[in-house]
Amino acid sequence: MTAIGLVFTGVAVLLHGYIFVMESLQWTAARTRATFGMSAAEAEATEEMAFNQGFYNLFLAVVAAVGMAFTAFGDKGIGLALVLAGAGSMVAAGVVLLLSSPSKARAALIQLVPPLIGCLALAIA
User: Fold this and answer.
1) Is 18 helix (H, G, I), strand (E, B) or coil?
2) CB of 29 within 8 A of CB of 66?
3) For the chain, give me the number of helices (H) and strands (E)?
4) pLDDT tens sequence across 14-51
5) Alpha-helix runs per DSSP H in 21-75
6) How many CA atoms does the CB half-sphere of 64 hold within 13 Å?
């Protein structure tokens, strides 16, 4: 179960790293605007907010990644705590998105399912 948990947590880490790139580095790019369904004007108006939000995603990914490393190579107790903090926050953010914007259910599920499976598998292990 540990391996399954680490794989799904790793998927969540990579996904949130990619979200960081889109939000903080490429927010006004045509592909990112298409992904988020925004016009150029909307992207320009929200660029500062997205820059900050992207870093939240990066920090959650870093915490979960450090937790993965501790789980795989060090102290499993510290690792589980860090994975649950980072990936658990990803799950919580996905639930908030799902509840606050039901039209974004697909994005919310993409955001929350991999870290949820990772957290559950590691907790069971």
Assistant:
1) helix
2) no
3) 5, 0
4) 999 999 999 999 999 999 999 999 999 999 999 999 99
5) 30-36, 40-73
6) 32
